[in-house]
Amino acid sequence: MAGGDFGGKSSSKDGVKMSVWSRIGNLFKVDRLSREIDEELNSHIQEAIEEGRDPAEVRKAFGSLLRHREESRDLKLIVWLDSVRADLLFGWRQLAKKPATSAAVILSLALAIGSCTSVFRLIDALLLRPLPVKDADRLYVMVLHGVGPDGSVRDSDANEYPQFVLMRAAVKKDAELIAASFGGERVDLTFGSDAEMEKAHRQYVSGWMFNSFGLKPALGRLLIEDDDRVPKAKPYAVLSYDYWVQRFGRDPKVIGRKFQMGNDLYEIVGVAPKGFTGTEPGTFSDIFLPMMMYEGVTHNDWSWFRTFVQLKPDGSIQRVRDHLQAVWTAVQTEVAKGFTSWPPDGVRKYLQQSVIVVQPAAAGVSDLRQTYRIALLAIGVIVALVMLIACVNVANLLTAQAAARSREMALRVSIGAGKWRLIQMMLIECALVSVLATLAGALFAWWAAPFIVARINPPDNPARLVLSADWRVMGFAVALSITATFLFGLLPALRTSKVDPVSALKGGDDPHSRRRLMHALIAFQVAFCFVVHFGAGAFVSTLHRLSNQPTGFSAERLLTLETVSKATQSTEVWFQAADHLRALSGVESVAIAGWPLLSGNGSNGFVSVNGAPPAPLLAYFLPVSPDWLETMKIPFMGGRDFRRNETKTAVAVVNAAFAKEYFHGEDPIGKSFNRGKDRFQVIGLVRNARYRNMREPITPTAYIPLGYSPTRTQHFFVRTSNANPMVMAPMLRREISRARPELRVSNVITQLEINQAQTVRERLLATLALFFAVVAVLLAGIGLYGVLDYSVLQRRRELGIRIAIGAPVADIAGRVTIDIFFMVLLGAVVGGGVGVLLEPYVKTLLYEVQPSNLGALVFPFVVILVATVLAALPAAIRAIRIDPVTMLRAE
Question: Containing H/E element for 60?
């Protein structure tokens, strides 16, 4: 019966427990909560005794008050949270004691965390983030890996549409093929009169792409397969969401509106969903058009789009590849019969050694990615090393701080603080530093990533990346912060937890142990710093060499105006516009060419001489007007320039490399060569000039008359007397249209900007690497200074005695710094070895630079040595100024 009564009272004990849970929100009022628990338990016990129960049995049933308090999980949690609160407040006071030192530590770590997060944002946006489409993990791209007509090994993802149709039918059971033209093409269009012409990024896509990707329209409808069956039959267009917002302000009346692009009038039928900007990271497609609206869909020799493979759930990627290979081989074998200008051996190798490869493309495909993949990874490695330098630096400073607080820790242990309690206290201090650094680093990353992107592409066509601050980026920043906390905080925390109170209060059992640890960390820090400077030196040297490469022509005061016409015009129309420009004030000379040098564009072909088989080396061709060579300041070595009446005559002016390759260095004037069925007579010889890019060797080049291959687009080259030719751009735009109303300037850019675009990647690499190299050496210098300052502080009694017995100044300074210089030398040797091992991975980013040569190794060593001397100087001065009398009295 008593037992039953006590069973009823046990429910009251549960009530006590529930009352604790009801107070769990009051985390920092532990003492009051403990008293409340005691009071409630005492109340229940008194009630039971007053009811006539035996006091001993009552206390036995409820248990010891102390046991209830100690075994209460709720109370333990609150006690722990209260200890965390106390450690946070104590850690904040510790940071506030030395605001300058704390600020330096936080800012250095913030710079490292912010830099890492910035680079991750770029890598994520360009390389990792999947396209916002259905089943992105089943998306692939078709690439041809093989041998080019000149025998060079190359990869190509460009395809011809007639072949694409056959391939789609061949793989229908296993996959769906989707065609998408190369993004980034900026075209002229008008939504009204010709006066309202503007530019937009256009992409041709398969009509079934949106449905295959599982995309739904934000407005209207998207393209469907029926829109993409017959060439030029359905001129429909879909706007991207961003373009709709920026250009039309979300106007729903945009549906049904028409615009002129080239000779076609398109009708807007819908707006793509938000977030889908096309298939190429780094480029936002503003307008999507059916593939059938492109004139190249009927040509089997026009390679102008990529082929995406969307694998079906039960499909086999190997079967898809085999079918694609079979179709490609059959089609190209037939097409190769018309390669009469190719060397026979080149045709055979092209057919036998070319292989279809199907590569994952969940994140899309872009030329920007191919260009900057290795560069971004290299910067990522450099930033990771800077992060490690910062962590080692902070770890050293915290180790020194922990050594200075050894007596405090000894007292804590003496009064009962446990090992884990000390570790918690130190880690919370580190976490506080890390959180503050992460917040500051997030601000830096928010600014830095767009700043870097703005410098990736030329100003006339900048890269556009989705730099979202979503859970991926936030998760990376948080993970980085937690990792940094353990990297720089765990070691000092563990050493602090092992403090021996007796030994610490006596001065420590091994005063050199902490210095040895800190010196070892300095060696690691210097090794990382050496690798950063090693890479920075290589990238800066590459930029210097590329920027100072002779181009063979003058880009000063030269303006290029890309000019278009709705229809192909006679050469005389272009000449008349040029004549009009020559009469303008401030214009020194005017000429016309198909495209600018170093723009990446080009036309090439095999050349044969005297009926011999075509030579294996490709020659490049460029249609130009008379006086173009003079305007570009490419000097003649012999012969003459084109005449105005030779617009369609098969004559050519060749460069020295052309004469050396095909005429064996003999005078080519008056001789002839064949390009396919065309036979050209050489009338002039000029010096070499770079054609496509700065990295390629000088190519054999033939300049041919402008009218030999008429097009709707030509480039005017205007050399001005003004040091800033862009000042004249508005006037030149107007005057070209005034001279010939059928011509319209589409784009204006200086030749100097075109030249500089050749080194955008190198400039980005050099600038960022140099910036992080400066950060690395500053962090290393701070770390060195902190270690040396700690060393002098710990050895001040020893140094005072040595000074008292007559030790010379040089001996005192040497004893303070010799160990550090030895560790710096060790770290430099290790860093140099790591740098040499990394050379093969960055070789493609370098130009005429050998990182392993002596000069490349000396530069970072000298920089680190100078930083070491500057960091050691204050500590050496402080050591030699120790007053032995004052120091001995103090001890």
Answer: helix 55-62
